[in-house]
UniProtKB/TrEMBL annotation:
PROSITE patterns: C2_TENSIN (PS51182), PROKAR_LIPOPROTEIN (PS51257), PROTEIN_KINASE_DOM (PS50011), PROTEIN_KINASE_ST (PS00108). Keywords: Nucleotide-binding. Residues 593-731 form the C2 tensin-type domain. One of its GO terms (molecular function) is protein serine/threonine kinase activity. GO terms for biological process: positive regulation of Notch signaling pathway; regulation of clathrin-dependent endocytosis. PANTHER family: CYCLIN-G-ASSOCIATED KINASE, SERINE/THREONINE PROTEIN KINASE. InterPro entries: C2_domain_sf (IPR035892), Kinase-like_dom_sf (IPR011009), Prot-tyrosine_phosphatase-like (IPR029021), Prot_kinase_dom (IPR000719), Ser/Thr_kinase_AS (IPR008271), Tensin_C2-dom (IPR014020). Belongs to the protein kinase superfamily. AGC Ser/Thr protein kinase family. PKC subfamily. It holds the Pfam family PTEN_C2. Residues 42-314 form the Protein kinase domain. This is Protein kinase domain-containing protein. SUPFAM superfamilies: C2 domain (Calcium/lipid-binding domain, CaLB), Protein kinase-like (PK-like).
Amino acid sequence: MSDLLRSAFSYFTQASPTTTVSGCKTDHPLVGTAVEVGGLRLKIRSLLAEGGYALVFSAQDAQGNWFALKRQLAADREAANAIIREIRFLRELTGHPAIIRYVQAAHLGPQESGHGRAEFLMLTELCSGGSVVEFLQKKDFTSSQVMKIFYAACSAVRHMHTRNPPITHRDIKVENLLFDSCGFVKLCDFGSATTETFQPDDLWSALQRTQLEEELARHTTPMYRAPELLDLYSNFPIGPPQDIWALGCILFYLCYRKHPFEDSAKLRIINAKYVLPEVETGYNMFHPLIQTTLQVDPRRRPLASDLCERAGALAAAMGVDLTKPVEGLDLPQLAPTASVNATAGQVQRELASHTTEISKNMQSPRLPSAAAHRADHVHEQTAQQQASAMLGAIKGQGMTWLKNIKDRTTAMAQTVQSTYGGRGPDVSFVTSRLVIAPLAEGIPEALASQAEDAMRLSILEQARGQFAIYNLSQRRLRCDYSNRSSETPMPPLGSGITPTLNMLMSVCRNMALFLRQKATNFVVITGPEAQCVLMASVMLLYSGVVEKPLSAIELVCEKRNIPILPPSYHRQLDILRTIVSTDRENLRAMVHNRRVLLDSILISPTPTFNRSRTGCRPIVEIYSAGNKLWTTGKDYEELQSFELPESSKVDLNLGHVPVADDVQVVVYHARWTKMQNRMQQHLMFSASFHANFIDPHTHILEMGRADLDISPDDEGKFGEPFRVGIRVISKMLDRGF
């Protein structure tokens, strides 16, 4: 599967809506169709590569940006878990300039896919410069080129090894290093990555060692295997140091165009028997790095951070600027109107923030405001031109470059610039120690990191002291916050799911702990605006700055125009206010810990969500404490349809589901789409309550339109007076707290 993905990145694209990648198939049934991956709508342009259970397409979004779309089928649970791990690792690691950029992913279960297998879609950037090994087969690299390629690989590995827990790539090799269109190096293929480590000892049986050796062989390439993978009786630890060994093999290959262990001989690898030229070759300065990485004992190999520091020091001595792309490459030429140098400046600024070993500074130097404005203006135009230019294409090794260059109009660049380029950082200081900094939703991935960096610089300009940032978005942060960032993604506003009380209070406790450490500390909340306002209001109540939810919202409103919050958000604020303002004894008298069962739900009158506006085909999902417990979802034909005037109300059994804490009953309308040949769920409304706060003698919870989370676009689909009743059963036994 790794070979398949790698082959996909050896193809190049052009950004014309009516053209495809040269040499690729356009007769596949999916070519020309539209697909949505994580909210990003794309049109499939051509088939790049195919295998037994995977296809790789080139795809284009509405702005003309090109992507690689990998479609994978999982026949069993093991295969599905492997794909999920690859997506999870790439998503966690994306944002580093030397790692291929993850964009989005989507998943369909075996029942939803229509062919009995789980289906996964993964969207990444489409590297257009080709692989490092293909350039090396044509001619030798200069020492400067070797230095830049090796440092980029070390930087990517360092980014992986400094995760918590550390991520081991396990398949580091020169074939997995790609050039982007500017000449910067990217590491790809994370299908073998893992966080597992092993420590064999004398208690291990022969069977255990054999099984582990076979498992490791499945995820590694023979020529790059470290000694501890081949000789488990040495009892060396198995983990991240195997990537350091592989980096040594790569450096040897970059210098001498051959592998130090070309024949993959086990004894040679176990004893580290390789030969470095004794005569002057022009690469002798790299010999100490090769020798320190290719050590038999993994405990004696340098850490990735130390290796980056040594490589950075060598680059400084050689006069090599590691923030510049690899020079002297025969990369495909862009359209005449595109500025390669200006485009390279974009990646140069990103890479500069990661070369901390050389500058000993955790932040990139800031440009003067006028210069920064000019640089951003040039970047936005050239980045669009680069994405629009048709690049050459190669297929396999030794093939001739096919160059087909076409000009792109500036209309798209102007559209993107006017849409996103004029938005300044949106930062509001609610108090001197509480900041809201929403990031605009819908910004393309290519501009997201710029928007975040502008936000960070704006905060640093307006305040002194250290800050911790809390990200409530599904999109991860990309900038470096010196380990003072927290990823706490909240459910999207339109999902019908509300952040649980436990989640909100957990974030508040973490914020309060950071604020107590130093009087000048402050916290920043970022993510979608509605979630930011909710979290800020919760923090104001939790810390006692205000006493009432309305006062908290009004305080935030003084600093910015706040969005309309759904009823479930107001309910959470009311419950939190009760908890923080009531002493323990009175609170015990107000709540209970009885077992609560959901019996049925009554909806009147019947909502009109079908295409003929005569009724609906409802699906109910029940969430308790943030976890999905139960659903009425089944095959589309088995779902009951309720239509007016025959069915004036909807009455559905909820199966006596036991619930606790935050409870949400989410009701969808099931709709069959012929184009995708599957069922879709359209949110109708969401009803929520807290099981510990309801009256134990209540048998039905009645809610009106104002108590439900309903999309404003769907208001006309509910008749008057619209009511929802949830029948509940509270057991007599109070289990206490």
